[in-house]
Amino acid sequence: MSMSESYKSIIKNGLWDNNQALVALLGLCPLLAVSSTAINGLGLGIATMATLMITNVVVSLIRRGLRAEIRIPVFVIIIACAVTAIELLMSAHLHNLYLVLGIFVPLIVTNCAIIGRAEAYASKNNVVAAFVDGLMMGLGFTLVLVVLGIFREVIGYGTIFRHADLMLGPWASQLSVTLFQDYNGFLLAILPPGAFMGLALLIALKNKIDKYLLSRIEVSQKISFKTTPMNIVE
Amino acid sequence: MKQASLYKNIFTPGGLLAITALFGTGILFIINWHSSPYIQENERQVLLKSVNSVLDNVQYDNDILQDTVEVYDQIQLGHDSPSLIYRVRKNKQPIAAVITVIAPNGYSGQIQLLVGINTNNIITGVRVVKHKETPGLGDGIEKQRSNWIDGFLGKSLRNPKVGGWKVKRDGGEFDQLTGATITPRAIVGAVYKALLYFQTHYVDIFSDPDADI
Questions:
Q1: ipTM of the shown complex
Q2: Domain assignments of chain A as residue spans, ordered by start
Q3: Alpha helices in chain A (DSSP H)
């Protein structure tokens, strides 16, 4: 496989084929807890992405010195350090967001996707590839969080990007869109069951799209098979 | 097991693990050293903002976060540990106090409140600091979700009159929230008790010898 092709497959894996939230079903605890609004999802997604990139790079850097029997505890130390560092820096420099996401940030430690990538990818690949893998896996996870957040927020509150100013500063309060005036809200979408239902719908949608794409490929293969003999006749 | 393989199988990995842990601790030490002053200042600002939010139209000149007193009254303030009172003064004269109160009987447990009362026994604001009420129903008590909590502004023991310190469903003057009666009932009760406490302990609160003014 050529270099650019392998990066293409890393990107495709992270965003779609092996999406940590929709396919691997890893990291569901923070995913379900935080996706009640789009901004919450975005905040936790970015924090998770940062953690994934840091841990993937560090694990890849030390992969030659790593011994099989202690690799899991070493991964745990690296992940715990990265998350604690992110939590401290967030509390120091993005305090408003920290107040919203505070209790969920330590939860990143429990996100199996991170140790999963360290074990399955970063410990076997070079630093650049590991970095891209962390970025793409994190991005795929963030996208699911944001889409799920938008879905739950629209149904639950009738808005999109409410409290955007908590994360992006005062100017971002203009981003908040109220879709329905005098909407009383639909509680179920905001509570945990709404998270499960939303995630189930997203997974079903992804499977549907995959099936459709697969059938397209099969059809085009059949067509090309049929057309080949005709070409010969001509 | 031979000595050499003992080293190889136990001490080398153990040593490597210890080095990793030490290294990680070192990095966290540096980051903590960098962030702790920012974090302290942020926390102070957050606290100051929430205390100020219950001091509507109160002009003061003391450092209210330092000028505090701890009192203990489980029946009227709901705490089973001492509760903090921020004392608000201008030209060293008491003008108001902010009392931390717990409403023990919320729909899902305790509701933590800040109640600001001026020296005329009139409420200058109430805010919910911490609660576990149902999202979408009971959480209308939060200022960022509805204006219900502003209904206490300007109220006192004489306004509304005796019997009025209840939610409307119980025959009082305070609105309940759509779909939630228990939560507002708990808060109305707690605020009323805080007013009673302030009226009877006014002198004690401001004459505390610990006063650091």
A1: 0.70
A2: 3-233
A3: 3-12, 28-34, 38-61, 71-93, 95-101, 112-120, 127-156, 164-168, 187-190, 192-233
